[in-house]
Write a structure and sequence with these properties.
The protein contains twelve helices and 15 strands. It is an alpha/beta fold.
Amino acid sequence: MDKDALLALREKINVLDDELLELLQKRAYISKEVAKAKQGGTIFYPAREKEIIARLQSLNSALQKTEEAKQKLPTESIAHIWTEIFSCSRSLQKKTSLAFLGPLGTFSHFAGEELMGKSLDFVPCSDFNTIFAKVHAGEVQCGLVPLENSLQGTVGQCLDLFEEYPVHIIAEHYHRVCQCLLSKNTDLDTIAVVYSHPQALMQSHVFLKQHCPGARLVEMSSTAEAAKRALAEENAATVGHERLCELVKGEACLQVLAKDIASSKENVTRFALIAKEQNSALVKKPKTSFTFTVVDKAGALSQVLQTIQKQDVNLCKLESRPAYNRLEGSAWQYRFFADAQANLLEKPELLQALKEFCYDIRILGVYEALL
């Protein structure tokens, strides 16, 4: 080891760190000035953040051509670093709290960090109703709820709660669920019991049957609670997010024995970020989520779809649910939930035309479409 060369390199890093800190301080000052200019407007602007990250990733690729940057910063690192910079900037503008289905360590928690970074107050909730209630009451600025999963389909309870609480969708987020087997043990053959949420066990049952054939599978209320149980017992394991190793700690520590063990590799959950007020940020690629009930006559739903089609609006999702607030004497009334690839708030003539065939129409939110 060349100690002198190592010291010289470390000194160069110290100088660069000092410069980075000074630049971040300047950025923080400008960020607070931006907050003053917004005068209380929306502070979470996903389209703007996505645009900045894409530009920097493109610049990062261009820098690869220079001699000094042959070992360039990985593209995914650009997204991770700037997500946290954005998160810190938002916290300077306005302290943000996010309600999610807890406890800490659930996939909802990690999806929230992925979407908004770590510089906010995470508020774990025991059920979806509590999330909606806290957002509606103004106890938290935002809530993160799952709308649908690519394997299990729609989360009906969350859709139903939009009938009860007049909150708004301000952003969507797609989070890939990567199930991992975690344990204090280092040998799969020693695992006697596997704790996890029922869905995680179901998604990973083929791998567990093949590699831990003698292990008991025990259902828990959450992957986070299951991880604590696995850490406390001998010859135990859990199925969950790999970052549970960081959150759940004791005298020993969990480690990843196997990664991405679910039978399907296309396990993606679509989340909605909800808030009390409508999204006021500029939306470049709009998606509108809305709900409606149709009048009780033949062809009413067909007329709704034709009216939307005539306005050259594409529906990318349409689903019916039993109406939570039914008309008196109607036991079989259904409410429709739809996503349109357009800003319907900018099409008042369409909304007016739909009223002929609908008892009610409500815009749940206009936000940036990610897919």
